[in-house]
Amino acid sequence: MLSRRTLERVADPKADFWLVQAVGLLVGSVGLGLAQSFLREGDVPAELRTVAIASAAGLALVESSSSATVEIRPVYLVDAVVQVATVAAWLRESQVN
Questions:
Q1: What distance in Å separates the CA atoms of residue 3 and residue 23, rounded to the nearest whole number?
Q2: Domain count of the fold of the chain
């Protein structure tokens, strides 16, 4: 988001950088909302849990399935692993409450 040059060094060259920015803002917005939910006291609403699990699972699915069909850099697979861990954490937390 902040540096196209840095992003393209870590990932790949991006033809439609505006799309990268849009997705980055959306993912960042969801992440900010999820972080806020952890900071407030009380139970996390079911709808927010659904957003957390579905968005992390969706990112993991896109990143891992892309690695099977397109040659992508390992950083995407690392993120897919992080997303799967995020799904597992939310599911585990959901069962506790």
A1: 15
A2: 1
Query: Which residues constitute the domain of residue 83?
Result: 4-96
Q: Which amino acid is at 45?
A: P
Task: Report, in this order, helix, strand and coil percent for the chain, each rounded to 5.
Answer: 80, 0, 20
Report the pLDDT value the prediction gives residue 12, as an integer from 0 to 100. 76
For the chain, list residues with pLDDT below 70.
1-2, 97
| CB contact at 8 A, 15 and 47 | no
Interatomic CA distance for residues 41 and 72, integer angstroms = 40
The per-residue DSSP string of 51-92 comes to HHHHHHHHHHHHHHHHHHHS---HHHHHHHHHHHHHHHHHHH
Structural contact between residues 8 and 75, judged by C-beta atoms closer than 8 angstroms = no
Q: Determine the length of the chain.
A: 97
Q: What residues contact residue 64 under an 8 Å CB cut-off, 6+ apart?
A: 77, 80
